[in-house]
């Protein structure tokens, strides 16, 4: 049956946001509402659980919606656990000390400098944020000032200029305004009694009006030691920090209406006062967590507002070429839609999913430009959804000399790294889009490498991770959902086995800025460790299981095991070759390739009992390498 050609829709259902205080494996997409650490749950529960919140405004938000291990110099292995909420981010820099912080997010967005360690020099110069400080996102809020517009009116560490301070204005009412261009103005009609300045912070040099000072010191119902009691709702220094600007009136679109909103930027949060709101919601924590996420991860969209990212089942087939592989979308009726059109093979390996459908990115290896070599490419959402022949479709070559020729190479990188084309394949995008695991033959053997990812603002990195292992072949890498661990297949022990290791990062600092990361593997472990061959490892969406193919029982079958190598279960039992499993986004099914009907087709089975539920393709061609995003 030949492929049909239609526009590929990307559809999803909105995930239910339910708070659960039980810590689970980090999962940025599936179950993203779970708390990544019980200490995060305890802080959220104190103020925002239904038992105490009642009708008051949120201090963190209804639930968390993204967690990950972000680079931080002073954390174990250079990675700290962070979790994002509407209003802020929680983080644990040193798990053993048990201290939860919530980051200087506002300082970073105003200054454009992301703090990557305790020392001032452990930072990264990015760009200030144009996300509006109040109201809707920029596309629906064109006139509201962003964080950039406060740069010249804000106090933050900067070696190039003295700290900005405002004069003391006790007993004055706030009438100052600021616009989209950072220009100041006056609106005497907004100088209300509740905006009277009652505090001047001498640490940073800024004035605080009564309406915000009362909110910062508000008392109410909270949970302490498992009991409902009355006390300060937040420790304002911990949750909000010192003010870094004076208060200003802005015009901002909230919903469908433009309002006058009084805003003040603090180190960790933004406070807003909207007189038009109901009394209980006139003063609120601004959505600094959302704002920061839009700034740092623009390619991931808005998980608090968008549908759960869903992508189709893809596979490789030679049905139209008779020779080389091209990428197809499965229609689950025996047919598929061709998505790539080249004179040499293209095989999909991983997805960079996004809550913004226009930001979907497909990582493939292809021979389109170098027929003698497999090379790594990223296909944007247009190319991946309606075929590369469509106007505007874009395939970006990542295996490219000019992408990495400015890196300060660690000593293990050989000169050939930058001087010749070689086979580079199996590109696995990290869940946050900032890094790629790639198998590269630049040193003469297939080694596991980590590179800068396709996401904007990714820190430069190009390191051979298996440099200290014996001369052996590596293949099919995968990430843990939180980005802390990598999995891959290697024949270092004489046959193909599945390995797991933790990633450890160190910074390369130049002129007080982190310019590059150096990565290495630690705690390397052989998970399968048997005389048979175990290949095609894929990690489940929740990070708890690994699916793989093995010939340990005499022919290639599909197996699953726990992520630590325990509890191995055989799922298929057929004289044919079954291989290349890939997890469904919900982790309940696997798609795999099998030649049980005389040529390779794509099938689906239930992980719980191995029952084959569907034959996806049905033709006389070879259909291989299924890919389900997770």
Would you mind describing this structure in some detail?
The chain is mainly beta and 630 residues long. It is built from eight helices and 39 strands. A hairpin with a 6-residue loop joins strand 33 and strand 34. The longest helix has 11 residues. The N terminus is likely disordered.
Defining key terms:
39 strands; 34% strand; mainly beta; four-stranded antiparallel sheet; 630 residues
Question: What is the spatial order of strands in the main beta sheet?
Answer: 12-13-14-15
Largest sheet report: 4 strands, antiparallel
Structural category: mainly beta
The unreliable regions are 1-27, 401-417
Number of helices: 8
Note the overall shape: elongated
Rg on CA atoms, Å: 26 Å
How helix-rich are the residues, as a percent range? Answer: under 10%
Present the secondary structure layout.
Elements: H1 38-48, H2 50-53, E1 66-71, E2 79-84, E3 89-92, H3 105-111, E4 113-115, E5 123-125, E6 176-178, E7 184-186, E8 197-201, E9 206-209, H4 210-216, E10 219-224, E11 227-232, H5 236-239, E12 248-254, E13 257-265, E14 270-273, E15 283-285, H6 288-296, E16 314-317, E17 326-330, E18 336-338, E19 346-352, E20 361-366, E21 375-379, H7 381-386, E22 395-397, H8 401-404, E23 424-429, E24 435-440, E25 447-452, E26 462-464, E27 474-479, E28 485-490, E29 497-510, E30 513-526, E31 534-539, E32 545-550, E33 557-562, E34 569-570, E35 578-583, E36 589-594, E37 601-606, E38 612-615, E39 623-627
């Amino acid at each position: 049956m030949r492929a049909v050609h239609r526009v590929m829709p990307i559809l999803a259902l909105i995930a239910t946001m339910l708070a659960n205080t039980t810590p689970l494996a980090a999962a940025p997409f599936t179950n993203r509402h779970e708390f990544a650490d019980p200490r995060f749950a305890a802080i959220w529960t104190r103020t925002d659980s239904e038992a105490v919140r009642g009708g008051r405004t949120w201090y963190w938000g209804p639930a968390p919606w993204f967690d990950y291990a972000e680079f931080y110099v002073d954390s174990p292995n250079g990675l700290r656990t962070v979790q994002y909420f509407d209003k802020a981010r929680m983080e644990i820099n040193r798990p053993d000390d048990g201290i939860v912080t919530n980051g200087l997010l506002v300082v970073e967005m105003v200054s454009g400098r992301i703090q990557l360690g305790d020392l001032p020099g452990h930072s990264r110069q990015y760009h200030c944020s144009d996300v509006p400080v109040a109201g809707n996102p920029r596309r629906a809020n064109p006139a509201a000032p962003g964080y950039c517009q406060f740069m010249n009116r804000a106090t933050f560490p900067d070696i190039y200029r003295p700290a900005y301070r405002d004069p003391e204005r006790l007993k004055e009412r706030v009438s100052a305004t600021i616009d989209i261009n950072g220009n100041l103005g006056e609106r005497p009609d907004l100088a209300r009694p509740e905006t009277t300045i009652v505090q001047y912070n001498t640490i940073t040099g800024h004035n605080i009006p009564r309406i915000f000072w009362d909110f910062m010191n508000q008392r109410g119902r909270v949970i302490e030691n498992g009991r409902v009691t009355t006390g300060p709702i937040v420790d304002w220094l911990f949750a909000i920090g010192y003010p870094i600007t004076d208060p200003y009136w802005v015009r901002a679109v909230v919903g469908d209406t433009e309002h006058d909103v009084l805003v003040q930027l603090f180190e960790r949060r933004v406070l807003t006062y909207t007189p038009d709101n109901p009394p209980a919601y006139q003063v609120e924590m601004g959505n600094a967590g959302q704002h920061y996420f839009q700034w740092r991860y623009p390619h991931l969209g808005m998980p608090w507002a968008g549908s759960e990212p869903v992508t189709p089942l893809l596979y490789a087939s030679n049905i139209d070429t008779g020779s080389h592989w091209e990428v197809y979308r499965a229609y689950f009726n025996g047919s598929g839609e061709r998505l790539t059109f080249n004179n040499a093979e293209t095989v999909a390996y991983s997805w960079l999913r996004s809550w913004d459908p226009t930001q979907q990115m497909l990582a493939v290896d292809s021979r389109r430009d170098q027929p003698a070599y497999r090379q790594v490419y990223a296909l944007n959402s247009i190319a991946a959804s309606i075929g590369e022949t469509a106007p505007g479709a874009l395939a970006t070559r990542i295996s490219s000399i000019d992408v990495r020729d400015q890196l300060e190479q660690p000593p293990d990188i050989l000169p050939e790294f930058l001087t010749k084309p070689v086979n580079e394949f199996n590109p696995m995008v990290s869940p946050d889009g900032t890094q790629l695991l790639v198998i590269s033959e630049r040193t003469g053997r297939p080694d596991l490498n980590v590179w800068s990812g396709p996401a904007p603002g990714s820190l430069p990195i190009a390191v051979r991770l298996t440099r200290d292992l014996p001369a052996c072949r590596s293949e099919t890498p995968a990430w843990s959902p939180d980005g802390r661990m990598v999995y891959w297949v290697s024949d270092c022990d004489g046959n193909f086995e599945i390995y797991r290791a933790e990633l450890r990062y160190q910074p390369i600092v130049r002129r007080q800025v982190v310019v590059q990361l150096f990565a290495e593997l630690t705690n390397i472990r052989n998970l399968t460790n048997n005389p048979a061959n175990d290949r095609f490892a894929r990690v489940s969406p929740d990070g708890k299981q690994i699916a793989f193919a093995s010939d340990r029982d005499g022919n290639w079958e599909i197996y699953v095991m726990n992520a630590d190598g325990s509890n191995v279960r055989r799922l298929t039992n057929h004289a044919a070759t079954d291989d290349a499993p890939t997890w469904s986004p919900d982790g309940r099914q696997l798609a795999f390739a099998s030649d049980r009907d005389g040529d390779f087709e794509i099938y689906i089975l239930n992980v719980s009992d191995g029952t084959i539920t569907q034959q996806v393709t049905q033709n006389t061609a070879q259909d291989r390498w299924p890919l389900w995003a997770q």
